[in-house]
């Protein structure tokens, strides 16, 4: 009973982080392992399935607030879809420990970097126009998709800190991450379902609590100042990056 309560609290927290900053879903994986006794592969697959639904709800909530700029989101999602496959192919040639060390370092750096004011030179993708803008945004999506396929993490973990670094507003970055989350989680979940590694019972009730957290988090994201939201994004990235590094170093 205590394990279920703790897992429920973790699911609410994860949903709140997804709704508020788009980053934090990765924290559900160790929680499922510790509190539900699932294997690593089953924890990852079960968590990923829940992210399909948190992404759908997050997208709807942010769209209802008018926070999703589809002129930015569509090319980024396109690039992510195009390069997710090649990233997954390279994944088989690199050790998991090295991948996690690389991923943790990138997210940790992004978190610290985003604490400081954005440099004008890095806002080129935000300020570009026409075909150049489309290509730059598709390139951002390509990096996100390749990194997601390479490391096995959801798109927002990479897209949100990367977009903040490049000068996009935190709210725009988080809103875009909600949409990317759907594509990344859905494609991965189809493969996991075919392999039979999803615990559907646990996924069902954990997802319900996550959705409650997403709703509360999205409301919070639209109620606080951009500066505060950017600081929250930075802090969450630092914590998530440190967690990934710690797990990789201890492996």
Description:
With 251 residues, the chain is an all-alpha fold. The protein has one domain (2-250). 81% of the residues lie in helices and 0% in strands. It is built from eleven helices and no strands. The protein has helices spanning 2-21, 28-35, 40-64, 70-91, 96-113, 124-127, 130-151, 155-165, 170-195, 200-221, 226-250. Helix 5 (96-113) packs antiparallel against helix 11 (226-250). The longest helix is centred in the C-terminal third of the chain and has 26 residues, at 170-195. The protein is globular and about 55 Å long. It starts with a helix and ends with a helix. The model has no long low-confidence stretch (mean pLDDT 83).
Search tags:
81% helix; mainly alpha; 251 residues
């Amino acid at each position: 009973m205590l394990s279920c309560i703790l897992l429920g609290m973790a699911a609410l927290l994860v949903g709140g982080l997804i709704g508020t900053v788009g980053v934090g879903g990765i924290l559900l994986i160790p929680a499922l392992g510790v509190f539900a006794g699932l294997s690593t592969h089953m924890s990852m697959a079960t968590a990923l399935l829940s992210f399909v639904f948190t992404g759908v709800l997050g997208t709807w909530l942010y769209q209802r607030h008018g926070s999703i700029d589809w002129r930015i989101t569509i090319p980024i999602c396109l690039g992510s879809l195009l390069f997710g496959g090649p990233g997954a192919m390279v994944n088989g040639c690199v050790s998991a420990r090295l991948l996690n060390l690389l991923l943790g370092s990138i997210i940790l750096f992004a978190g610290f970097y985003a604490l400081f004011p954005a440099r004008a030179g890095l806002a080129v993708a935000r300020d570009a126009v026409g075909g150049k803008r489309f290509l730059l945004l598709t390139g951002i999506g390509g990096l996100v998709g390749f990194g997601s396929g390479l490391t096995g993490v959801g798109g927002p973990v990479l897209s949100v800190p990367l977009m903040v670094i490049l000068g996009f507003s935190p709210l725009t970055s988080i809103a875009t991450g909600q949409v990317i989350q759907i594509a990344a989680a859905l494609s991965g979940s189809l493969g996991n379902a075919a392999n039979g590694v999803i615990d559907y019972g646990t996924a069902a009730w954990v997802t319900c609590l996550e959705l409650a957290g997403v709703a509360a988090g999205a409301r919070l994201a639209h109620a606080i100042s951009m500066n505060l939201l950017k600081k929250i994004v930075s802090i969450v990235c630092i914590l998530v990056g440190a967690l990934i590094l710690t797990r990789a170093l201890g492996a």
